[in-house]
What does this fold into?
Amino acid sequence: MTSKKFEIAPVDGPLGVLTPGMGAVASTFIAGVCAVRKGLALPVGSLTQMGTARLGKRTDGRSPKIGELVPLADLTDLRFAGWDINDESCYDAACRSEVLERSLIEQVADDLKAIRNTPAVFEQKYVRNLHGTHVKHYSTKREAAELIREDIRRFKKELDVSRLVMVWCGSTETYIERQAVHQDLDAFERGLDENDHAIPPSMLYAYAAIQEGVPYVNGAPNLSADVPALMQLAWERAVPTAGKDFKTGQTLVKTVIGPMLKARMLGLRGWFSTNILGNRDGEVLDDPESFKSKEVTKLGVLDQILQPDLYPELYSNIYHKVRINYYPPRGDAKEGWDNIDIFGWLGYPMQLKIDFLCRDSILAAPLVLDLALFIDLARRAGMRGVQEWLSFFFKSPVVPPELYAENALFIQEIKLKNTLRHLAGEDLITHLGLDYYYGE
It folds into this structure.
């Protein structure tokens, strides 16, 4: 049955993309967009720019680009601004991060030099291995949130845009569990006045964005908008949100291999994952409390995919270990190594070894682009609250409280593309194909 086509507001003018954190990931994203706009490179890794969605039967031969299926902001219409704890331009950040070749950076230097960050809301107790020098001063968290809201309104005027989205590209904060202050909006706002420790800076950015009607995406494992109070606020304010923690290297592989094992009913005894990483993210994660936030998102993936309660003989006794090691010489070129002990027919043991020599920010940058464009689409389509259809991009997808997160990559892809088909008024694809067995 064909879906009713949604009323989607048109792409009316440029879109402002705000990034709390303008380091390696954000500068690589912005420099990349500038390079693609100048025809210097291809947007490889971006679903919105290079992906297609099949429509109808396979025999119909209809597979338009995603940007032809639904109305997305064009790259030429993107404007950029954000916050960072280092006082520098986007050009400075790109050079310092050493992700992109200097020759490419120089070709977009004028564009990058024109983008200078704003002082950030930052408290070192939440990111212990960083020392912010370009930070805001405030006495209460309520005041900090108001300062962010003022920045958002100023950015909107300076960028001359009618629409904004915010994508958190900042660091991983120390681990915080959900507490009483997170349970409803009244408690949360009391916590702002009382400087409650359970409200870290990322949560202040999420609160400020939602209050200003700006869709919010969380690219780190921080709680951020993943608490009942901010879910409530997002629903009431009709603001879409999504998160959390960009799915880039090792966990991307895990969400492919894990479903393969379960699909073939192969058993798993142990999965050891280790990473070496030398950029600012690696430095932050060298602190055990920040690493714990990342560890929780990485460890939770397999349990949901493998469902040990349903398959106890295969998955109830897994030894799952994750390590991240700060190794400065490697820079942004991360290495993820996995040793996977599996067993098959009659319990006979086998192994998988995976060594993923990847580039952290190169994998993350197209996700920032796709999420910015998709969350803007969601807002123009009148969607509100948690956008589970964007789980494809995250290690620890946020879902409404009554649901569990779906982590298998290709199930996530089907959900994402079916949501786009639904918005476009096209038939959903179930891959059933019964007419090929029984006839019309």
Summary: The chain has a mean pLDDT of 95. The first helix runs from residue 24 to 37. The first strand starts at residue 15 and ends at 20. The chain has 17 helices and eleven strands.
